[in-house]
Amino acid sequence: MLAINNIELKLTRLFVAVSLAVTALVVLAACTATDDGTISAERFILKDAQGQPRAELGVGTDGIPTLSFYDNGQQLRLQLGESPDGGIGLHMFDADGRPRANVSLRSGSDPSIELFDSNGRKRATIDVSGDGSPSLVLMDSSGIARASLAISSQGVPGLNILDSQGNVRIDLRVWDDEVAALILSDSSGEPHAALAASDIGPPSLVLADEQTRSRVDLRVLKGGVPNLVLTDYQGNVLFTAP
Fold first, then answer.
1. Which in 19, 25, 116, 164 has the greatest CB count within 10 A?
2. What is the pLDDT of residues 78-89, one digit of tens each?
């Protein structure tokens, strides 16, 4: 019986030794060191004192490298990685795993910031396009853009207010530091009222009908003289004062 026990003990030790050897071979296969001291592997995992993964650096099956950080509950909170189109992004998540903020550099080197609400819905974006035009867009809870602030490539600043269908209803902008205008549009995006102030002409208020034809034109002429013109749908003057 003692001999059998000795044999079992030796077999157990041999099994443990073989297991350790196999494990070592697997580790060596996944992680190799070169003569210059460089260590290479497909994935690195950092664990805390309780043995829980807290950070991971690896290359996915799609060939995209990512660096991920996890909280105490093993929830992904921060991830840095390359996108399939060649861009790169930093993604931040809340304790429930919902996206809250993205900072990215798209494949065309255009930077972008996206902010999400507590339900993971995008509510704000800040972008700079390839021509250098910056923009800020605010969305409602349905993801529809409702307000935007931008500067065009020609240097024209503009503020747009949109309805729940995404149609521009209020357009405010300044052209060449000479003309400031406020344009009000209907639900189809057709302009019906415009208020303008200019260094090259009199301030004016224009009201248009459903066909966007000017029907009321109110201006303040040189010398402070007010001028009102009413026209019919064919453009014929119906009334003028003074």
1. 116
2. 999 988 778 899
Ranges of H-type helices in the chain? 2-30
Tokens 């009199």 locate to 202
Tally of CB atoms within 10 A around 116 = 19
Checking phi first, is residue 142 left (phi over 0); if not, alpha (psi -120 to 50) or beta? Answer: alpha
As given in the structure block, the two tokens for residue 54 are 């807290």
199: in domain: no
The Cα–Cα gap between 216 and 193 comes to: 9
Beta-bridged to residue 58, according to DSSP, are 43, 66
Can you tell me the distance from the alpha carbon of 43 to that of 22, in angstroms, rounded to the nearest whole number? 19
Between the alpha carbon of residue 187 and those of residues 85, 157, 206, the distances in Å are: 36, 23, 18
Contact 41, 56 (CB under 8 A): no
Write down the pTM of the prediction.
0.77
- pLDDT tens digits, residue range 139-155? 999 999 999 999 999 99
Please determine, for residue 19, whether its predicted confidence score (pLDDT) is greater than 50: no
As given in the structure block, the two tokens for residue 41 are: 């592997």
Please give the residue range of the domain that contains residue 87.
43-130
Looking at residue 132, the DSSP 8-state letter turns out to be: S
CA atoms within 13 A on the CB side of 188: 6
